[in-house]
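--- STAGE predict ---
source: upstream dedup step, 1 unique chain passed
mode: sequence only
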Amino acid sequence: MHEVKSIHPQEPLNGIMIDCNIVDLIQALWDAGFVTNSCCESCPDDQIWLSFTTSEDLLFFVGILLDVGEFYVDGQCIFTNVRRSGSHYCVHFPFIWKQDIIKKLKEEL
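--- STAGE serialize ---
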């Protein structure tokens, strides 16, 4: 794995540097058995970006998002970016959903 420079403050989690504002989310994902390969706390602003190794992890995670999020605000979808990027499976979602996602992940354990 190559090192990527971050524009956000980071802290180590199991020897991997993670953006400080999502360390708790990444730990909850790992505890639930997800395999991530990259993440960002605001990419774009107010959106968390996650990259999973498998499409199965991405699809299971999207199911969690469907349980916790309101997808339309003022008639516009705020959850639009689920995609494959090379061998990675990526998703963006609003940062404000983070605590609800962590709660749901802990319920799934």
